[in-house]
Amino acid sequence: MRPRYYLDTSVLGGYFDLEFQEDTRAFWEALCAGRCAAVISSLTLEELARAPAEVQELLGGLPDDGLETVAVTDEVEFLADRYVSEGVVTARFRGDALHVAAATMGGVKAIVSWNFKHLVNLRRIELFNGVNMLGGYRTIDIRTPREVIEP
Length: 151
Description:
By secondary structure, the protein is an alpha/beta fold. The chain has helices spanning about 10-15, 20-30, 40-50, 55, 75-85, 95-105, 120-135, 145-150; strands at about 5, 35-40, 65-70, 110, 140-145.
């Protein structure tokens, strides 16, 4: 079974960002070739609606069976609120908490992101997982595209 990775919006933007472009495009190639699958949430789609057109169009290039959308359910909202109440992120960055909660509920192998401040950050990963374990949820891994590209 191919690995499923939750994509936050920064990965889509990274496709066109000179700093992140090379690794993001290599990851995107793996997605398009079907070596792994992308998982997004309805929140990702909302955030994409505010992105430039070229970023919005990226998802359309994925194979039909290579993209899955998970819903932002009441349980996802509850878990995101727990992250905020436990101080993992502030209420201002609740969107990041929603991404982690959606990915946790979606059962993905990892979240793929370029958001170093709130997601790809060892201290925060440990805090997210602390909340998950205390609540009886699975742990989640958060990596950059560079870290999940398979040779």
